[in-house]
Specification:
mainly alpha
């Protein structure tokens, strides 16, 4: 589920917005097919597919900003809440990823380059806009489900907030500059240790393993 949950976000059916807003459903169908094709049991494929279908977020209403959370506003539809242990873990991992410094850069880049969004200064995309990357961090934190994720989310929010507050937008005026600022910050202040460590997909090959 973790490997396949975003598989149709870019390569699914429909225009970019439709792919984005339906990649949970499209990804669930894709996951079911892929796992069936490689011989996984029907029950295994069902659990993974359900987790993918239920990973969409953050949704609902953010009373701190008195505004709907991003997925509810941008897609204007209702998504199912995670119902199984696997779905809750996948959802939380996805939200924690959104809350990282790299997640902020990703959302800001989306807002700067995607024609679905109106042109806005980089500072609005990152920090001060109605649907800024920072608001996405807060949205995601409010919806974390498991105790471990909620604890990690508190540390991660502080780490990301320090990055956002430290950006000099008189100097950092575009996405390449934001990416450099993020890389510099992460070299000096690595991500909190509570985040799961995921090895590179080719790490085994680099060590001579099959």
């Amino acid at each position: 589920a973790a490997l396949l949950h975003d598989a149709t976000k870019e390569d699914g059916e429909g225009d970019p917005k439709e792919r984005f807003c339906t990649h949970g459903d499209q990804g669930a169908d894709f996951t079911q097919k892929v796992l069936g094709d490689i011989g996984k049991s029907e029950s295994f494929a069902d659990r993974a597919s359900t987790a993918v279908r239920e990973h969409m977020g953050p949704c609902g209403f953010n009373w701190r900003f008195f505004s709907r959370r991003f997925m509810s506003k941008f897609c204007d539809r209702t998504y199912p809440k995670p119902s199984s242990p696997e779905a809750k873990v996948l959802y939380d991992i996805d939200m924690l990823d959104l809350m990282t410094v790299d997640g902020v850069v990703k959302v800001a880049e989306l807002r700067q380059k995607n024609p679905e969004f109106e042109k806005e200064p980089l500072k609005d995309s990152v920090k001060t806009g109605r649907d800024s990357a920072w608001k996405s961090v807060v949205d995601a934190k409010q919806t974390l489900l498991t105790e471990n994720a909620q604890s990690c989310g508190a540390d991660l929010t502080s780490h990301t907030e320090a990055f956002v507050e430290g950006i000099d937008f008189a100097v950092v005026t575009d996405i390449p500059g934001l990416k450099k600022a993020a890389a510099d910050y992460l070299r000096e202040k690595p991500l909190p240790a509570c985040l799961p460590s995921v090895p590179a997909w080719n790490a085994g090959a680099e060590n001579g393993e099959p």
